[in-house]
Specification:
Elements (H helix, E strand, L loop, with lengths): L2 H4 L36 H14 L20 H7 L2 H4 L11 H18 L3 E3 L5 H18 L7 E5 L5 H8 L3 E5 L9 H7 L4 E6 L12 H10 L3 E5 L12 H4 L3 E3 L20 E3 L11 E5 L2 E5 L15 H37 L15 E4 L1 H7 L3 H8 L8 E2 L8 E4 L7 H20 L1 H4 L13 H6 L11
Parallel strand pairs: 2-3, 2-4, 4-5, 5-6
Antiparallel strand pairs: 1-7, 6-7, 8-9, 10-12, 11-12
Helix pairs in contact: 3-11, 5-11, 6-7, 11-14
Amino acid sequence: MTLFEKSQPGCGNQLLASLDVPTVELESAFVRQSEWTLPAMAEADLSRHYTELAEKTHGVNNGFYPLGSCTMKYNPKINEALAALPGFTEIHPLQPLESVQGCLEVLYKAEQALCEITGMDAMSFQPAAGAHGEFTGLLLIKAYHQSRQDHKRTKILVPDSAHGTNPASASMAGFTIVNIPSNDEGCVDLEALRAAADEETAGLMLTNPNTVGLFDRNILEITKIVHEAGGLNYYDGANLNAIMGIVRPGEMGFDVIHLNLHKTFSTPHGGGGPGSGPVGCKDFLIPFLPNPHAVVLEEEYSWEESLHSIGRVRAFYGNFLVVVKALAYILTLGKEGIPEAAANAVLNANYMLTKLKDLYPPAYDGLCMHEFVLSLEKLKKEKGVSAMDIAKSLLDYGIHPPTMYFPLIVPEALMVEPTETESKQTLDEAVEAFRTIYATAISEPEQLHAAPQSTVIGRPDEVQAARSPIVRWRPEHQ
């Protein structure tokens, strides 16, 4: 129920102090002509309402969350404690530089650490999320070609297994998208790439490991093909969690990269808080980074601006407290802990894959990286049980569904990413749930069509919800 439905006439609470400033009457044109439609509730009831909503919310703190390609890892509480320090929270972005030296130091040291991890030479923290970072990275590529008067480079090559934001970001940046098919192994088709890479190619967008959870063994050849055509290589950092501290995108031949601090570097994700999609680049692209850039000048931290910058992509300096949390995570794990986290992510994914592949066929054979993709095409044809049915059934076991129907090159796809922060006990419980659901799919397939059955809300009419969404409450909804 909404607050409006719980509203009781006569109830209320006094949250605001008495007015202690002169009253100012607004012109009638600026005054609403009808009464507010606000709920009437006591403070205790209001508190209970939001507590009840919080208890119904599924998150990493209260259940397994194997959402593929999203890296829903646990967020250490020490990160939150450090980000809550008054020296970080009680500041203003327009303060004199001498009064925020500690904050500038955070940005500078976070940049150094992330450049070391990725093999880049500089980084901007302005982008507010992953897709925003993609767009910013593409603007760097565009500015680079234009600075060389190479205006014919209008095409961005994007694999067919890419995240949907890749072609969208390229289109927003004014590029034409060229789709590159995958080969039978789920990786980039080299011959198709060679045929597409030409004098009009501005760059390639790629994540490695890719979206089917595989590390492309031809990655050096891929980036070489693009470079020889005169294009630049953009690394989508969505899957960096599998390789951080082990191999660096800069050494794979990538020129520009975005990171998801709210994924790889363990800051709150999605509804848990703001994101951060910093963009890193090689030295020849540094002049084009968003202004300003944190630097050390005569033993003091300051800002540096470039005349060739693409300009600001966000107000001030990005979601600063997210950077604080990410730096805390990096310093906590250190040089040894970061590659260990990546190795454990790969181990957990392969453990689950091995335990499930006799019932749920993987889209591609062999070892995976941090995630794996299952294809339920055979189960759908034989029993009428879809990937959606399996995903909804997992809710009855307290498990958030994996990513469904992605990537699009895999029919009836389920993409599972357990992350390194899950224990073997949790993985075994999840495997048992998958196997139990499969047994039901074989013996009583109709039962899964009605799943979930133990949640607050059963399976909604998703077509109706998409076509005729109700996104705000109105009195007639009562």
